[in-house]
Specification:
By secondary structure, the protein is α/β, with parallel strands linked by helices. It has a single domain, classed as 3-Layer(aba) Sandwich (Rossmann fold). Helices cover about 35% and strands about 15% of the residues. A 5-stranded parallel beta sheet has the order 2-1-3-4-5, sandwiched between helices. Strand 4, helix 6 and strand 5 form a beta-alpha-beta unit. The longest helix has 13 residues.
Length: about 140
Amino acid sequence: MSAPLSIRFDESLPARLRRRTQSRAGSSALRGLGHDVAAIAEQPALRAMTDEDVLARAAARGQWLLTGNVKDFQPILQQARQAGAPAAGLLFTSSRAFPRSRKNPGPLIGAIHAWLAAGTAPPPLVEDWLADPGT
């Protein structure tokens, strides 16, 4: 049986979503469902890292990185793959598919839960797009 997926949220995601995944009591929406999730914003040392370093760290730990920053991360991923470096999985999302509502992060949280629950293959599948599970 494969290990559960681990996912980290890039700082490009809305602060409210990041806060919903951060819980000192461990009862946040996604953690409460048993998922290994964390936000870059939870660790000040990580917030100071470059995108390249964030991706390299995720790769070294076998984690996926959820980001809406396709423009910056896709080229970094391609460079890493061309160099033969280990690649983290990048899970992309967009504000078009999931409008960034401060009052209702529920649809995005639901889509992340569905993606994680589906048991998407761990790396070397290195790129995926988050989709609305209702479509």
